[in-house]
């Protein structure tokens, strides 16, 4: 029974091994044909009674705009690529998804329908670093709001008299947090909106610069600019630059390696690298790394050689003593038996 059981497991293992990469491939293919929902106006939260238009973008059959729309997981309409709510009700809150003829279902968009006096509207609640974020402090029935203040984690960051919109063209990790706004309505009444949680995901982690071990003068040294986690976006091409102090060693290359062909003592110093997206919108810098190149006259080199000579010398001495002793013993034995 043992060989059969083992065979079974082998088959399972083989099947798993074959299945995993195939699955990964399918995943990355379907990713590119995922439908995408956009909102017009762009806000994912609205007041009751306001209108919202959803648009779906994805590959379809030529001349056939047929698009499926889902609300809270159930199919609500199969018509065309736009779906409109002329007067949103509380029941229109929830999760929306769409699917065109040749796409897979889009990522969900969470619509919130609110009541109240002041609403902080956002263009999305979850971002990948680099995407734009728009904020709007919006009054009930479009009533004018004055002295608008936007807050991130309860700290005010923008004060304006006229406009009640604020744009962050490129989000980064510092934009994570809970946002709200306040403003004056009619008769100078102060209103404060509810908080909205904004999440920004890192597109790629900051790089770390490492050097190959050898650091004796005359030897090559390899520097490597490594990104620990794979980027959020599959297939994202990063560009790497290498620096020593203020000096650029190698600029904007897809290779994350840099080689010092023959290291000299002058190559000792502070090194760092940068990883950037193709458009250069997101650039991340590694911590500095100290590289020490030891020359033949350096104390380290001296100690290293001193240590080697001392070890070899000691071994030689011990050997000699042993040899002499063995020779003597042999001679004594010979004398005894012959
Ligand atoms: C979708 O259908 C609606 C109603 O039939 C129509 O008013 C609208 O123009 C259509 N939109 C597109 C993009 O074809
Ligand atoms: C959809 O889900 C949201 C939130 O879970 C809920 O508020 C809303 O009433 C639901 N609407 C329908 C029609 O199921
Ligand atoms: C459009 O495609 C859908 C399937 O996605 C199909 O049900 C429908 O009949 C097609 N309409 C036309 C006019 O070809
Ligand atoms: C607030 O934001 C608006 C629009 O982005 C800008 O014009 C204004 O200068 C900002 N005010 C302050 C105090 O930062
Ligand atoms: C994040 O973006 C803000 C501007 O919106 C900028 O001032 C800040 O330096 C950026 N932070 C990082 C870590 O890139
Ligand atoms: C350094 O890089 C070169 C070229 O990429 C490679 O041939 C060599 O083996 C590397 N050396 C070390 C110590 O990693
Ligand atoms: C990147 O570096 C490699 C070798 O270091 C070089 O052959 C290539 O031309 C460089 N590419 C660019 C765009 O500079």
From TrEMBL:
PROSITE patterns listed in its UniProt record: IG_LIKE
GO biological process: antibody-dependent cellular cytotoxicity; innate immune response; phagocytosis, engulfment; positive regulation of phagocytosis; positive regulation of tumor necrosis factor production
Record organism: Loxodonta africana
Protein name stated in the entry: High affinity immunoglobulin gamma Fc receptor I
Subcellular location: Cell membrane
Annotated Ig-like domain residues: 35-114, 129-197, 206-290
A Pfam cross-reference name: ig
Family annotation (Gene3D superfamilies): Immunoglobulins (2.60.40.10)
Keywords annotated in UniProt: Cell membrane, Disulfide bond, Glycoprotein, Immunity, Immunoglobulin domain, Innate immunity, Membrane, Phosphoprotein, Repeat, Signal, Transmembrane, Transmembrane helix
Family matches, as InterPro entries: Ig-like_dom, Ig-like_dom_sf, Ig-like_fold, Ig_Fc_receptor, Ig_sub, Ig_sub2, Immunoglobulin_dom
